Amino acid sequence: MLPTITWDNDRVILIDQRLLPAEEVYLECLDHIQVAEAIEQMAIRGAPAIGVAAAYGVALGVQKMEESGDWDGEFDRILTRLENTRPTARNLFWALERMKQTFDNHKHLALLQLKETMIQKAISIDKEDVDTNKKIGYWGRELIQDGQNILTHCNAGALATAGYGTALGVIRAAFEQGKKIRVFADETRPLLQGARLTCWELNKDDVPVVLITDNMAGHLMKKGQISAVITGADRIAQNGDTANKIGTYSVAVLAKEHGLPFYVAAPLNTIDFSLTDGDAIPIEERNQEEVKQLAGQCITVPDIEIHNPAFDVTPAKYITAIITEKGIAKPPFELNLASFKD
Amino acid sequence: MLPTITWDNDRVILIDQRLLPAEEVYLECLDHIQVAEAIEQMAIRGAPAIGVAAAYGVALGVQKMEESGDWDGEFDRILTRLENTRPTARNLFWALERMKQTFDNHKHLALLQLKETMIQKAISIDKEDVDTNKKIGYWGRELIQDGQNILTHCNAGALATAGYGTALGVIRAAFEQGKKIRVFADETRPLLQGARLTCWELNKDDVPVVLITDNMAGHLMKKGQISAVITGADRIAQNGDTANKIGTYSVAVLAKEHGLPFYVAAPLNTIDFSLTDGDAIPIEERNQEEVKQLAGQCITVPDIEIHNPAFDVTPAKYITAIITEKGIAKPPFELNLASFKD
Description:
The structure is a homodimer of 342-residue chains.
Chain A: E1 5-8, E2 11-15, E3 26-29, H1 32-40, H2 47-63, H3 71-83, H4 90-106, H5 111-140, E4 149-152, H6 167-176, E5 182-186, H7 193-204, E6 209-212, H8 217-222, E7 228-231, E8 235-237, E9 242-245, H9 248-257, E10 262-265, E11 271-272, H10 289-292, E12 293-294, E13 297-298, E14 305-306, E15 311-314, E16 321-324, E17 327-329, H11 333-338
Parallel strand pairs in A: 4-5, 4-7, 5-6, 7-10, 8-11, 10-16
Antiparallel strand pairs in A: 1-2, 2-3, 8-9, 9-15, 12-13, 16-17
Helix pairs in contact in A: 1-2, 2-3, 2-4, 2-5, 3-4, 4-5, 5-6
């Protein structure tokens, strides 16, 4: 099996996450438009993976530039197309900013050299993401005790990143230490990333995993069957307010009600230091068909009205700790996240 | 369209709720075994509807009795078969007790007369259920204000009862008063009673309804888009602890966290006065395939471990009021529910 994202000379190869676990199909993207479409259609998803894919998308776009072209104008169009794919994940914009900085710093070079520099930058963002996740795992594993049952929501695993995962990176690291843990995976409607991706990943790695529907978590907590919750993040504000897959907020409220720790695992590039709190995080409303259909079949009255917010914001007061590659931040997050800033 | 359950001479006709809303198919049950299977397989579901169906099942069973047979032995076998269908809904056992009492009081009669008496008793349980729901609606509608958005979980509607519904009965009664309300329906995994049945029923009656996945309720509450929650019940203990469809407890915790009223609408025969609290309510664990499959399609890794509790228990402290046919009970429920007892 290939990693989630692979750079292969003149193209980006992505595992098509819409088809997992039934089929293992790889998509080849030959230009930035194909990468943008793969992000929009969620063939690739997960905030860090979106960032890495977008970086490669920029690199692909630059490869099409011609000596006589309007480089700046073309670069802006590439950036705009990729920026407009999905609004919530901070990592997307972070990666695009890094690629723009690299472009601006090297656009005085010969075109061939500029092209190679952009590729190398995207590869470094990719590699850095895996290293970051290993560090998140290293710090986070100390929060997990032998014998615990860990609830996770959506997929913040190898598939959501360049590899290893954030929330699942912590789980992997604890498991690799020999801790006997058991993961409860929320199926995560509407797109079932928990049922399809988290179960698939953990099962492959022999980490014990139990699948539940999203509405079972509260019941299991009340029965004492959950020890802690850990999720990823799509964007974190200065104060720790965290946007993540729809349903995360409900799980956080339930964890608080049952006195359970609620951890967020995310790289520092998920943090949006320009936002004082989570109120300004844009929440993507996705296509109603995602809710209306399950496995391609209409599950309700065809013309029913539907809400489909893809994310929610968990206020910092529900979060026990945020696990980053530089260490674990506890409240007050304003202070403790800022101390990790470059 | 026929009602949820119809007695037609020598058979019981049930709308097959597994196929709604795609297909409107009616099942004919000719004996108590077929009724028991329809209950087990959830062709008919919803606590009050299960009670009514079971009463008709007993009546059907008695029709097969012969002059020379062991009436008491046969009756016990009929009762046992129906008792063993599903463990949680109180209404099932209540209806079977009523049918047994009727049998015991009339078994000195001629067989033909006994058979007719059993049919008439089942019909009266059926009719009584609709009257009860109208009364629940009458009392409950005062709790709903013009312009409110009401969240409901699962289906406690006409389909879950002999007609009109409990939670949806209250919604119907408020709507019939001219109150401009809007219903948010949790889809209710795994069997999607919200998406399939609640949306179908309310849509038919022109009550505005918006479908959401179960994990969106918290987000909508935080955004101020929900005014109150109302659900049905499968069994209520003396102290008000309420077993209902899995996920109800999570919604109740979320309602409390957001300062929203959480109402339970149920007939008095849902109350189990023999239980001091909800800890002793048996929670049915159903087949893993319900979570794993949708319309024959596997949505996860085929050999994954799955939990599938069909119900959870919401402790009384999360419940604002219980709406019954005799009026609205507020805490302390021990006292106020007991005052409604016959």
